[in-house]
DNA sequence: GATGAGCGG
């Protein structure tokens, strides 16, 4: 900018004045290129006023520098480095190794990511999920053997409790980590106590179904769009304790879909609710209430 | 006229 240039030319900064005063007879820093070596010669005055010549030799690695970056060498320096020559001043600047950024969104990388799973699947379009129980291609929670697993877990828990109480003579695996190995079959595969030969079938004895009890769930349809969960709560509370209310809503718009599920604690209460609220006029609409079918994901 | 959502790995 011409205006700035004028200013700086006419009124050098205090720092520059001091520098100039000190440097009156000091030759400027110079760089000489000699093949792949750069020799930088600098003169300095030490504390005693003696002139020192500092020669630094740099080995230049041949690199491809883009034109845009090379142009920066021509930029006018400012501040304390105003009088420095082009390029980095070795007395104030350390040039380190290049740091390369690894861009993970690289197209090639993405391509590779796509390739790998395909290889794994052996060109099939199979789902990638694998059941931990039976190795089938469904989630573990959807496994047909899941109930059995529940029994195993329940049995293990029971045994742990029995062992901790110090009772139950002959109960194996008193506590995990007690140095005792769990009982193993001839094949070395672990078999839960409840499933071992001679064990009584105690399926479902101690553990309640992990799934929500849907036997006391009713479905309410023909709700007006501005019905809220709290409204349903008020409407059905008189019949008995409610464990859950689900009002179907559009995930994105949050708009009510006009039907809801009410989980009562007691099935009798649910039955009475159906009896009473069925055909009930609510918000200019007539409600429809009936037993809910188990949800799609219920087993 | 509509039978929920989302969690894992």
TrEMBL record:
InterPro entries: eIF3_g (IPR017334), eIF3g_N (IPR024675), eIF3G_RRM (IPR034240), Nucleotide-bd_a/b_plait_sf (IPR012677), RBD_domain_sf (IPR035979), RRM_dom (IPR000504). It is found in: Cytoplasm. Residues 163-184 have a biased composition (Low complexity). Residues 163-224 are annotated as: Disordered. CDD domains: eIF3G, RRM_eIF3G_like. Its main location: cytoplasm. Residues 199-216 have a biased composition (Basic and acidic residues). Pfam families: eIF3g, RRM_1. The keyword Transmembrane does not apply. GO terms for biological process: formation of cytoplasmic translation initiation complex. Belongs to the eIF-3 subunit G family. RNA-binding component of the eukaryotic translation initiation factor 3 (eIF-3) complex, which is involved in protein synthesis of a specialized repertoire of mRNAs and, together with other initiation factors, stimulates binding of mRNA and methionyl-tRNAi to the 40S ribosome. The eIF-3 complex specifically targets and initiates translation of a subset of mRNAs involved in cell proliferation. This subunit can bind 18S rRNA. This is Eukaryotic translation initiation factor 3 subunit G. It comes from Desmophyllum pertusum. The gene is EIF3G.
